[in-house]
Task: structure prediction
Amino acid sequence: MTQSNQQGTPMTPQERQEKANKWGQEQVVKIQKFCFSSGIEFKGFKQEKCVNLPPVIAIWYIQSKTKNEDYWAISGEFPTDIAPVKVAKDARDATRYFALSWQLKAARMEDSLAEGKVQLGDKETQQKAIAELIQKAEMLADIHRDEQFWVNTNLKIA
Result:
């Protein structure tokens, strides 16, 4: 599938690269804000452990100043999330961790609904959130299992 610019003409390699770079910069800001809101003082990335495929997914190895612990993070078309680096040996393993984590979170939310406890405003909103979380977890599990994706992960954070 060929990407097109706003005028509908196919993008040049330079335009694609500029768009990917812009997306990467937006994801960096998103992750830095997420770290801040989670009480983690962002120090930097371990570039050689980060993987991204604009505009779908970015998996980050984050170095922290605050807690003396590094973290895996995910962003892109997936919920932005973070976990201690000890939960996964590499970016691929981190995708499995996040997928399982989201499935468990969705199951807990379903259990709460079954008990009559609504956590996200109303029942319908919570059911939509559960469905979305399950869908994203399944998509991420597919990425984890996709050998071809991991063979081509020489795309690093810009």
Notes: The first strand starts at residue 42 and ends at 45. The longest helix spans residues 13-37. The helical segments are 13-37, 91-114, 123-145, 147-151. The chain has a mean pLDDT of 87.
